[in-house]
Amino acid sequence: MRLAKVIGQVVATVRSERLSMDKLALITFVDRDGNEDSEVSVAIDRLGAGEGEWVLVVAGSSARMSIDASGQVPIDLSVVGIIDEVTSNKSSWFKKNQQR
Fold first, then answer.
1. What SS3 class is residue 52?
2. For an engineered disulfide with 79, which of 45, 46, 53, 95 has Cβ 3.0 to 4.6 Å away?
3. CA 50 to CA 77: how far, in whole Å?
4. Minimal CA–CA distance to 70: which of 57, 61, 79, 83?
5. In sequence order, what are the residues at sequence separation of 6 or more whose Cβ sits closer than 8 angstroms to the Cβ of residue 39?
6. Cα–Cα distance, 53 to 5 (Å, whole number)
7. How far apart are the C-alpha atoms of 73 and 82, rounded to whole Å?
8. 61-71: b or e for each residue (b if 16 or more CB lie within 10 Å)?
9. pLDDT in tens, 10-36
10. Quick one: pLDDT at residue 33?
11. Which of 93, 97, 1, 19 lies closest to 52 in space, CA to CA?
C-alpha cells in the first residue's frame, strides 16, 4: 500500500465492458511531509474519496482483487482506504481536516 492524495477526478463514460462505472480518482503519491510526487495516476475509487483527501492505494494484482475476486478487471490502482491520521514516533504526518 502507498499513501496518495486525491487531486481530482476523471470522467470516462465510455469504458471497457470489464470496467465497472465506479468513480475514477486522479491521484498523486505523497511523502511523509505531504509533498506530492510529480507523477499523476488514475485509481478506481469505490469509497468516494474527495479532492484533497489522503488515501491508501494498492497496485497491480492487489488492485484487481480489491474490485473483483477473479482479478480479471483492467485496473492497476485502487483506493482501499480514506486516511484519518498518519503518525510515527509520536509525530503526526497527517491529520484529516487540518491544514498542513
1. coil
2. 45
3. 17
4. 61
5. 28, 29
6. 6
7. 22
8. eebbebbeeee
9. 999 998 888 888 899 999 999 878 889
10. 80
11. 97
